[in-house]
Amino acid sequence: MLKLLTAAQTKEADHYTVINEPIRSSELMERASKAFVKLFIEKLSDRKKKILIFCGKGNNGGDGLAIARLLIDEGYTFVKIFIAEISEKSTEDFELNLERLQLKDTSIFYFKTAEDIEYQECDILIDALLGSGLNKPLEKEWEKLVKKINKFSGYKIAVDVPTGMPCEGELFNDIIIKSDLTITFQRPKLNFLLPISSPYIKEWKVVNIGLDENYIQSTSSPYYWFWKGDVQNYIKARQPFEHKGMLGHALIIAGNDETMGAALISSEACVKCGAGLTSAMIPKTGLRALNARVPEAMFTNKEKLGNLDWDKFKVIGIGPGLGSNDDSLSLLKTVLKNFKNPMVIDADAINMIGENQDLLKSVPKNSVFTPHMKEFDRLFGTHDSWWKRIETALKKSVDHQIYIVLKNRYTMIFTPQGICYFNSSGSPAMASGGMGDALTGIITGMISQGYSIEKAVQLAVFSHGFAGEQLAQKMYVVPATSLIKNMPYILRELLVK
């Protein structure tokens, strides 16, 4: 797994690499610029495009100057450079790259105020003004400049991070370059993985610039990025003589008369991801639908709850479509009183616990909560920013010894050890009803098979997103039912050969 860094930690990794490789900082800048240009050429190979590059006088501007020189060397015929002299100071590496660029046949325009810049028509605009070192909101001439550049035509590419955006933490304001593509170095910035980045980054790509990976992995950051290569190591191949009784019995408690679809989706997802046995506790009105849709699942009658053999279940998933009336609350209390293994708690079950906070004390350790943003706030109080939610989730997961799966484009998994994993898989095409119900069933099914809770959650979250990602290559929207049908094939694809 890749550890994610703050801006300060990235700067330390730069310094460590320079000292210990060893390599001059200007050579590291050259390496970064070459990596940027390589990806640039892959995406925008037309050498006749009109390119404008806006540079500050710090190291981000130095990157911009090096990128300009390399693009010229690659045969791009129209590259015009604008250097903002709003700040008097310049870095040594900026000055070195300026000297190198001045040897080329290109146009360099210096300006001190935003008014000095007229509206520019271009095909591509590269933002290399301020980069990752920003620690305060932009104001005065910087603010005017960003507002003006955002009105320019052309496809906008940011170098490392859009000017005005901090790498982590709250945004200062909306004075940020709106990029079509951000090409960032070594790791995605934490803010790229949150919805707050959406107005300013349509797409981002990471390029490796050769920072010392051993040093990066040794940092104290609680944030990690996990991907296909990680979860592939988790999946267990089915063994000879293995049978359904060895792969766990899962109980899904879900659905109401008017929300039976949620119960069917979560039950089928549990079956399709490999639970040995799946029982569904649903209203009797849904029995015919269950038999038709998920014949592999067994019906469990909630009216016989008092005689239920709780010990036969490895895990319970509860909440999708359950409703939050008195009967549902009574059912939830009974489950919490009698079941001591980890549970997967979603949707209405989360909402009921949010309204009855004392129930949190009864939740078994290592249980998994799977809220979306609004459910999270109902459970832990209103938050006015994503960073405050992250802070709360890190604390609450440790305090209550639970896992929190905060669903998003890059779903976050918070652990009882105080770690936050960002999931790399998924697609906007998955934004449709029932996706959360499917995830609940998949997590429940993975836990039933004997994976550790942490691995089960990571495997479920990644495979759920990966299935949607694969289907999105052929489908405009990915319905939950289509994703579920694809799960056995996705898990087989992920299994290391």
Number of strands: 18
Largest sheet: 11 strands, mixed
Q: How many helical stretches?
A: 16
CATH class of the largest domain: Alpha Beta
By CATH, the superfamily of the largest domain comes out as: Ribokinase
Structural class: alpha/beta
Instruction: Label the overall shape.
Output: elongated
CATH topology of the largest domain: UDP-N-acetylmuramoyl-L-alanine:D-glutamate ligase
Give the tally of structural domains.
2
Looking at the overall shape, the CATH architecture of the largest domain is: 3-Layer(aba) Sandwich
- Based on CA atoms alone, the radius of gyration comes out at 26 Å
Rounded mean pLDDT is 97
Beta-strand portion reads 15-25%
**In what order do the strands lie side by side in the largest sheet?**
1-9-18-17-16-15-14-13-10-11-12
Q: Which consecutive residue ranges, at least 5 long each, have pLDDT under 50?
A: none
Helix content: 25-40%
Distance between the termini: 20 Å
